[in-house]
Amino acid sequence: MYAFDGDEQFYVDLDREETVWDLPEFSKVYAFDAQEALPYIDSLKNNLRALIQRYNVTQDPSGGFFLLLPPSGEGEDPCAQCHMAT
């Protein structure tokens, strides 16, 4: 079990390579070996790297994005805003 009633029960700390339980009581009832998950995580990272190279995905160096806002009133046009990260 990963989530219970929308709350995270545990996560795998990739730096320490261990399972971190939000509620220690769950660690007594459930078991999850983080060491078994690490090969899958490495495989996912490699697949992501291959997809990025294949489709030539690059991040926008400016860090900006456009936002199209709905009309604020009847008969008005939508408004486009450009947000730039600084």
UniProtKB/TrEMBL annotation:
Got a GO cellular component term for this one? Answer: MHC class II protein complex
Q: Which GO BP annotation is one of this protein's? A: antigen processing and presentation
**What sequence ranges are listed for the domain MHC class II alpha chain N-terminal?**
1-62
Task: Tell me which InterPro entries the record gives.
Answer: MHC_I/II-like_Ag-recog, MHC_II_a/b_N, MHC_II_a_N
Q: Mind listing the UniProt keywords for this protein, alphabetically? A: Disulfide bond, Glycoprotein
Q: Mind telling me which SUPFAM superfamilies this protein's record contains?
A: MHC antigen-recognition domain (SSF54452)
- UniProt name for this protein: RT1 class II, locus Ha
What species was this sequence derived from?
A: Rattus norvegicus (Rat)
